[in-house]
Queue: 4 jobs
Job 1
Amino acid sequence: MPASRTIFFISANTAITAETLGQSLLVHFEHIDFDQVTIPFVDTLEKANEAAAQINADARMKALSPIVFSTIVNPDIRQVIMKSEGVVFDLFDAFMSRLEDELHMRSFSDTGRQHGLLEDNMYNIRIDAVNYALSNDDGISTKDYDKADVIIVGVSRTGKTPTCLYLGLQFGIYAANYPLTEEDLYIEYKKIPGVLQPHRERLFGLTINPERLQKIRSERMPNSRYSSLVQCQRELAMAEFLFVSKNIPFINITTMSVEEIVATVMHRSKLQRRLF
């Protein structure tokens, strides 16, 4: 087993881009333990020097160079990070020069301008989408389902909430979620719950293997009927029957990360992202 490596995600803004791009690469190295450190808002030379010092301290402590994913645009600040003792993957530098050549113009290196053009415009969309997910979580309210881009359905503890929050946070998608309860599955057997009927074209189902669901539920309510394997098997079987019989698209999330779940929902539901 290779030694644990420290991963730094560094940005002049939120570091979401650095994290997303970096983690999409790291996921392919599943047998290595990564200690992940995020340093956002590195927008001055002083902060860059502090980040570089942290990288250097980690390198000396572990006698192993940390890996750094950076999305810093300012060339002076970028150079400070590049000269650190980390192995730096400059995600802007990897693509920017080729893109400038293709577009026949120089890019703006002013992070303030970038923030003004992109982040400020996107901020309200992101916040509105996340607030929508929270307000329409777990069937708390169904009155705004007509505003939903997608409604995630599934039995309890199948990852509906994190899926909706990620859709809102990363893509600005208005995602609600509705839990398929025993009443929905047993009393209204073979029927789409009434509150969902007007929105059936927006439904997307999540399911999971019964053994995995039992483990998740047992962490919340151990030794209960709710967390018993038999109960998990029954609920999942009936939910999946509903999905198949009513042509509701669905996926089994047992081995999927939230990023993979969201990407699949976006693709299969043909959702148009509002955040770029």
Job 2
Amino acid sequence: MSRVAVLKGGRSLERQVSLRSGARVEDALGRLGHEVLAIDVGVDLIAQLRESAPDAAFLALHGRGGEDGTVQELLEILGIPYTGSGILACSRANDKVLTKYLLLEAGIPTPEFFAFNQTAFSELGAAKALPAMEERLRFPIVVKPSSQGSALGIKFARTPADVPAALVAAFSYDGKVLLERHVEGRDLAVSILDATDGPQTLPVVEAVPQGEDFYDFEARYQIGRTSFMCPADLPGDASARAQELALATYRLLGCRGFARVDLMLDAAGELFVLEANPIPGLTETSLLPQAAEAAGVSFDDLVGRILGLARGQQVSTPGGSRPPEPPRRT
């Protein structure tokens, strides 16, 4: 077995979620027989990694610093293999606006949107363009920061009067915001796990908030706030189409190892990709572990497979084999 550094915590607003993900990963790695080095990421990260000299790093970081390519770049400089997507894919997926423009260019359906930064508001008079944006998007609309996860900073604007406060909230999390047409329907997630025969989609998970009309941060992580259906009971070929769109998004962004793609299914049966998550949560209420369990993959096995991919090991699945991805640069 090997020495594995579990990188967790950090200083992002998703710190507590990351600590929970990291703790579960540490327990699983211990059961699998690995030597576990728990690292709460901070200013001494490089020193800790050099001193401990791990064989690989398991990234359980969420949000800025962990999912945006920052830590990935440092690990590549140090020559330490790590789990999940590389620098470019993380940079793309972390920026919701960039992701949506890439989706549009590739012909992958995503809700209509507008995006602008604080400079547009403070120096270019973007506020005067809001009525035109609102008319084209139609209410309600969703206002969200471009680079936060776990639904942090996301607000509903049901009327024009709600927009200013929603913008203030979004700008408090990020310097760039997204105004997006709200798709009323079913909240779906498709997780993807690489294997020797290519990336494999796991069963679709549907999140159903209890007594809420929005799958927000609290609904995601407080046990009992949301019920989950996996596999989701969807009409016709909706599950297959959701998996197809998720896989197309995964490949478009250049993800590897594992990821999760979030979608909405509207009343007319149309699917829309919202975003991709290069390091999805691994907590008790997270969607990737639920999807893996529905596919017959235990949490320990999931963690072992993700680590094996990072170290360039073959991961066998039914249906054939494929050479592992080329090694990361060192």
Job 3
Amino acid sequence: MTYLARRLGLFGVTLLLITLVTFLITNVLPGDVATMILGTRSNPETLAGLREKLGLNQPLIVQYGHWIGHALSGDLGVSLVFRTPIAVLLGQKIAASAMLVVMSLVMALLFAVPLGVWGAVHRDRWQDSVGSSIALAGISLPDFFWGIVLILFVARGLGWLPASGYASPLDSPRLALSYAALPSVTLALSLMAHLTRMTRSAMLEVLGQDFIRVCRAKGLAEGTVILRHALRNAISPVLTVAGLQLGYLFGSIIVVESLFNFTGMGWLTYQALLNRDMPLVQASVLVIAALVMLTNLAIDVVYTLLDPRVRLT
């Protein structure tokens, strides 16, 4: 409980700092909310009245206090572009992006862990070289490159999956998965490369420890030694990297969702940036930061279930 209380306190302080930095950056940029609402050709008296009504003439610290106070009560304001309460917009888009993130994380783990184990077991052989080459290619090339390749060959060339669009899982689960497949694979490729390298390194370290030699000396089957004893002890750092990479995934969805016209959080944030919808940008950053930190906290707690040696206190 002490550990959780300390982490939750750190979570609150970090989130507060993120909101402060985001608010300051978005408010020092040229232009303001009143101009975005009324347009650049509006009457100066009307602009001044709207600025007064919205509190834009107050000091930034006062504006920040009002904004964070409303945000804590669940009021994130109204989008300047979509003319809709931001909380409603984010509620609609978070589910779409969460589906992408979960699918890409599952895909990455399903391929990265076997590749990493395979490379560690066959260290310095051709199998290891193949796994390392795949990981290097995934790390070296950016997400938009893989997205364009998948669109050209899988969607346009082979016609197996749609190139762009979004469908709600509530309306048609099968159609929703078909639209989410290519964006998820695009996100998973780079993540898989990082996790493959981490799995290989962790497995090599565990395979060199004394208890592995004892297991083999007892006559245990090699598969049992690798999967039950070595992998179980090597999986914790892999999950650590996976948790840290969630921040990367939420950052990458802005590019990937825009590329595939997948209308999730990333697409919404890009539209907000493109149209200078600063209230929506601030709220999007707040929600994404909170999701990343909560996920990392959950992964830390799960460690106790995977490795009894971990003690949160």
Job 4
Amino acid sequence: MKCRACRAPAVVEIRRHNTTLCRHCFLGYCRNQVGRAIRDHDMIGPGQRVLVAVSGGKDSLALWDMLLDLGYDADGVYVGLGIDGYSQPSADHARAFARRRQARLVEVDLRQQYGYDVRSGAAADHRAPCSACGLSKRHIFDRAAVEGGYDVVATGHNLDDEAAVLLGNVLRWDLEYMARQRPVLPGGHGFPKKVKPLVRLAERETAAYCVLQGIDYQVEECPMAAGNRHLGYKEALGLIEERSPGAKAVFFGQFLERAAAALAGASAEAGGAVLHPCPSCGAPTSSELCAFCRLVERAGGDPRRRVPVSGR
């Protein structure tokens, strides 16, 4: 099996492109896909500082690695969720990568900083663990970016993730969420700009990138994600992709091309909730108290603690 680009021995097959690539050409392909997503969607401007949301998994570490190789000023932020047997290895992978690349990693531990973990927070706030996790990470990523003076928050959502979220939203015809499902969410009203530079890369491709780059990552899935509907949607789309390579890319790509802008425009015309600073933490909210502070208070923690922005 030869590389379609240079005829060297191939190591990766990309069925949706009907191609095979050697290590050198595959790594270049991944960086080119990320660079193209950044350019096409105006994700990161010249000289802007990027904060990468790092979990210790393949997607976020591959993204951080590629952004550094592409010349971006990119630091990482890791949130310790307090999940026994999972959070510590994840943190170790994030720290090891930062040391290897001599990059800056900001760390926030929920137990140490706010007095709760995902399990206790979910129980106290009557949420599913994934909901409590997502709420906590979004809040901390936003605060770390704002307080650290970063221009952009980059997350490791890949093509499989975005296609699965879209499928779930379409099955429910949740137009409000579909209107927000874009590779870029502009900043404003106290929120930082958020971008997803991996939307042109599949999950298997980010995994292969890490293997070929020698990046160690957390392989195990979060034990608290069992039964998550998102994983079921990914599995269903995987079966479709197996029979029809490229289906996921077409599904999500055509959504962006044909529907995303119209839905976003309609949502903007309808107007949004009036935001004001949360009296406890200062984050923008439409409620008397933001959702994060309510969760922390119900879990018996202190939501007023500031996010530390001094990295390793």
